[in-house]
Write a sequence for this structure.
């Protein structure tokens, strides 16, 4: 049983004085260092990491190749102002991303929200239209443009002005918003965009893009049925609207493929990536075709996009992901984790649903009447931490299972043991 140590207590009290209180900490973990899939806190306690620092550390915490690449670049030159000058390292990163995705142009930035802002501006610029459609429970970031698309929690949006974005139902089959059953529903949720929004609220002539997460992350790890994204793609094609895929959490081989949309056989017009592609170094990327990404100099640029350290770290991360076949590992370990979680579901009625792809798995916790077990979820996450397992919540009552893709089977087993003990307590 881990207890909050003196060092952690002291740092938290200093943090409370100076760090913005807007940050959302689900529990009191003060990290010190990490190895593989294990994090150590400042008081010497160790934790198995089922959160990968919010789906960022897909490569694990001590990837020698990435560390070496960043250190070598650090010795040479840290930053160059890629918006104003040329440099080979960011070019190599863009080339690698194009090779891995088939897109032709890349805009580099520093975070997920920035990748989304660039995608939004690009879609508005290219189509000369002024509105967008996103989905309920979507999370696309907290800057004002991205926040307009976000619809996961109302407290994220209160008091902030919004761009013109309408929201539609996502295919959340466990709690179908239309009270229908898959597959008889005929993916009615997607069809609502044409049936209602385009007819009554927003003309496709004013709709620059539909923005979608391949699997909803923060909203509750919601995996739509196979036809959902194909239907959204068809609606975009038939109405001359762009499709933007937000791969910020689902990309980077987390679901087995480099881009989660590949699992659905759908290609978006613009793709946003971040989180895992930097291997822990801040990096965002917005990708598209040469035809769409043809905006003029100055229309969009930034100071740190193409930063040399981030580019070196990103390139080494992508190369490592490919050479160590992280996609295959995600599928194989995800299958095992899913099987074990389904066994727990049979044993504990609080587990209402287990869903996911690769190592992007969510467990939805419910009361007897299927109401979201939000308080019990908080308790379980805290108990797991006390037992030495880091997990993070998502949605109303979901716990996400997004460990580093290099995690060992023995670590999954140990983590599940701790999770089961926490379940028993709840
Ligand atoms: C799907 C998705 N889009 C965008 C973001 C925002 O990324 P950032 O926090 O780096 O701005 C997140 C963050 O969790 C995300 O999951």
């Amino acid at each position: 049983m881990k207890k909050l140590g003196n060092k952690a207590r002291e740092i938290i009290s200093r943090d409370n004085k100076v760090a913005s209180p807007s940050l959302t900490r689900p529990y009191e973990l003060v990290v010190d260092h990490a190895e593989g899939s294990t994090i150590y806190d400042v008081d010497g306690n160790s934790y198995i990491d089922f959160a990968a620092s919010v789906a960022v550390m897909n490569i694990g915490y001590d990837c020698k190749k990435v560390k070496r690449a960043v250190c070598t670049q650090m010795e040479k030159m840290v930053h160059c102002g890629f918006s104003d000058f040329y440099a080979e390292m960011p070019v190599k990163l863009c080339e690698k991303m194009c090779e891995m995705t088939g897109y032709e142009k890349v805009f580099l930035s520093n975070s997920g929200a920035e990748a989304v802002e660039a995608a939004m501006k690009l879609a508005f610029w290219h189509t000369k239209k002024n509105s967008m459609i996103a989905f309920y429970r979507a999370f696309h970031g907290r800057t004002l443009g991205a926040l307009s698309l976000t619809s996961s929690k109302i407290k994220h949006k209160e008091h902030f002005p919004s761009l013109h974005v309408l929201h539609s139902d996502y295919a959340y089959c466990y709690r179908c918003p239309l009270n229908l059953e898959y597959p008889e529903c005929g993916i009615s949720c997607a069809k609502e965009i044409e049936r209602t929004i385009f007819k009554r609220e927003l003309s496709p002539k004013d709709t620059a893009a539909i923005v979608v997460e391949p699997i909803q992350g923060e909203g509750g790890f919601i995996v739509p049925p196979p036809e959902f994204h194909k239907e959204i793609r068809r609606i975009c094609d038939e109405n001359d609207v762009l499709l933007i895929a937000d791969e910020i959490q689902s990309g980077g081989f987390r679901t087995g493929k480099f881009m989660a949309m590949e699992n659905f056989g759908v290609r978006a017009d613009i793709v946003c990536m971040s989180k895992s592609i930097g291997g822990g170094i801040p990096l965002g990327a917005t990708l598209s075709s040469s035809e769409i990404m043809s905006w003029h100099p100055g229309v969009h640029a930034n100071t740190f996009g193409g930063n040399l350290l981030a580019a070196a770290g990103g390139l080494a991360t992508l190369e490592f992901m490919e050479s160590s076949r992280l996609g295959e590992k995600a599928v194989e370990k995800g299958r095992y984790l899913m099987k074990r979680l389904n066994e727990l579901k049979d044993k504990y009625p609080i587990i209402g649903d287990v869903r996911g792809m690769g190592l992007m798995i969510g467990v939805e916790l419910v009361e007897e009447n299927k109401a979201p077990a939000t308080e019990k979820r908080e308790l379980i996450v805290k108990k797991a931490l006390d037992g030495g397992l880091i997990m993070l919540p998502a949605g109303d009552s979901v716990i996400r299972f997004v460990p580093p893709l290099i995690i060992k089977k023995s670590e999954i087993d140990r983590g599940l043991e701790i999770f089961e003990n926490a379940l028993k307590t709840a």
Observations:
- The chain has a mean pLDDT of 97.
- The pocket of pyridoxal-5'-phosphate is lined by residues 111-113, 116, 139-141, 213, 217-218, 246, 248-249, 274 (CB under 6 Å).
- The longest helix spans residues 326-347.
